[in-house]
Amino acid sequence: MNYKHALMVCCSIFCGSLAFAPLASASPATDAEFAQFKSEGASKFSAEQGKQNWTKEVTSKDGDKRSCTSCHDADITKPGKHNKTKKVIDPMSPSVNPDRFTDQKKIEKWFKRNCEWAWGRECTAQEKGDFLKFLTGEK
Ligand code: HEC
């Protein structure tokens, strides 16, 4: 193997790993979220727990069953549909929708609104962290 060849092999491995890096890496907004949840006493965030909570049904005071998947799809790589307005909601997974979870204010605003609607209360820091682990696919 000559020098040029070695360089090419090296580049194909290195550049290849760079191309995949953004899918797995955290965004500054989600880093800030996890730090915030930890400062509120939460720890050991679990994607598995987040996944279970994503489809967990809670009976509202009006008697209907509600969950995150009343509006978002259970498969987070697929678009959802708002249960009232019937508007399409873009997929939640950043692997197919890179605009997701890039703005901490937006994340918090919707956590608050959606937890209150779906579960009749705000989500805890632990629950929000578990959701974010599941939704972002971050390790
Ligand atoms: C009544 C419909 C509805 C329900 C139920 C719902 N959501 Fe949402 N959610 C929305 C809408 C609408 C948006 C904003 C539009 C968008 O971001 O595509 C949104 C956005 C979000 C965002 C912001 C994503 C980002 O890009 O920053 C998060 C986080 C979120 N929802 C989490 C949840 C969780 C967790 C639950 C269950 C506890 C839930 N949602 C239930 C309608 C809903």
Task: Give a brief outline of the structure.
With 139 residues, this protein is mainly α. The protein is built from 5 helices and 4 strands.
CATH fold descriptor: Cytochrome Bc1 Complex, Chain D, domain 2
- At the fourth level of CATH, the homologous superfamily is Cytochrome c-like domain
How does the overall form come out from the CA principal axes? globular
Instruction: Give, in spatial order, the strands making up the sheet with the most strands.
Output: 1-2
**CATH architectural label:** Orthogonal Bundle
- Based on secondary structure, the structural category is mainly alpha
**Total beta-strand segments:** 4
Largest sheet: 2 strands, antiparallel
Protein architecture, described:
The structure is a single chain. Strands 1-2 form a two-stranded antiparallel ribbon. The protein has a two-stranded antiparallel sheet with strand order 3-4. The protein is 51% helix and 6% strand. Mean pLDDT is 88; it is low at 17-24. The two termini are 37 Å apart. A hairpin with a 6-residue loop joins strand 3 and strand 4. It is globular, with a radius of gyration of 19 Å. It is mainly alpha-helical and 139 residues long. The chain has helices at residues 3-24, 28-39, 47-55, 104-119, 125-136; strands spanning 58-59, 65-66, 80-81, 88-89. It has one domain (27-130): Cytochrome Bc1 Complex, Chain D, domain 2 (Orthogonal Bundle). The structure holds heme C (HEC).
